[in-house]
Amino acid sequence: MSEFLTTGKAAALCSVTPDTVLKWVKAGKIPAKRTAGGHCRIRRGDLFALLKQMDDQQLSVIEDDRQFKFCWEFYSETEEIQAECSQCIVYRSRAHRCYEMSQLPYENGHAKLHCQESCENCGYYHLVRWQNQNILVITEQHSLQTELEDGTSLKQYNLCFTDSEYKCSMLMEDYRPDYIILDCSIGSGRVWHFVRNIAADPRIPFVKIVLVGEGYEFPQDCEKEIFAQVESPLTRVTLMKLLGASNQNSYD
């Protein structure tokens, strides 16, 4: 693995533009050297140190219009996926946050090709740690969608909405939600089918479902482990309070 990076490669690793990297260099945030041809080169370790510094300040460097980078993309020198990565559970589950799976032993499928002594020494960890969480909301109620979209305390979440099983399945390919809010008002039968299909989807093995609705019960014959709360579905008021509190606790 090369020690020095071009501004383009450094930008790709950080999910920012090359201009942003050059601004960091000019501002003295990261040291750089010049080639004989005058091109800027950045030491990989210095880039990771900057990511850690920004992580310590609870800042994400990722720009809104940049594509999310997986760990195998972050550490790859080419566009091709390493053969060892293709067999790793992180790659097979398309996990956005590989560090949440770091305790899995090798025999359970975690290849740990790029793992350092600890996540604190990993540049990728410091890049993505404070990235917004994805929340998929399944509802037919426009009022619930509006309430969530207008919530001033929920700006650190990436919200996506759907009202059908087909759209939900299609979204899983790229969106990869951390949580799924499932509105019980769509009917107990549909709730049951949604839960069963989500639980069986290998693309989102660690997703948690939050059921929302007053006077509803958990679907029968569904494993409770997939639910983010265990007593009963939340009311809309409680949901908004919990999302707001979670957002503040993550960044305070």
TrEMBL record:
<dbReference type="InterPro" id="IPR009061">
    <property type="entry name" value="DNA-bd_dom_put_sf"/>
</dbReference>
<feature type="domain" description="Helix-turn-helix">
    <location>
        <begin position="4"/>
        <end position="53"/>
    </location>
</feature>
<dbReference type="Pfam" id="PF12728">
    <property type="entry name" value="HTH_17"/>
</dbReference>
<dbReference type="InterPro" id="IPR041657">
    <property type="entry name" value="HTH_17"/>
</dbReference>
<dbReference type="GO" id="GO:0003677">
    <property type="term" value="F:DNA binding"/>
</dbReference>
<dbReference type="InterPro" id="IPR010093">
    <property type="entry name" value="SinI_DNA-bd"/>
</dbReference>
<protein>
    <recommendedName>
        <fullName>Helix-turn-helix domain-containing protein</fullName>
    </recommendedName>
</protein>
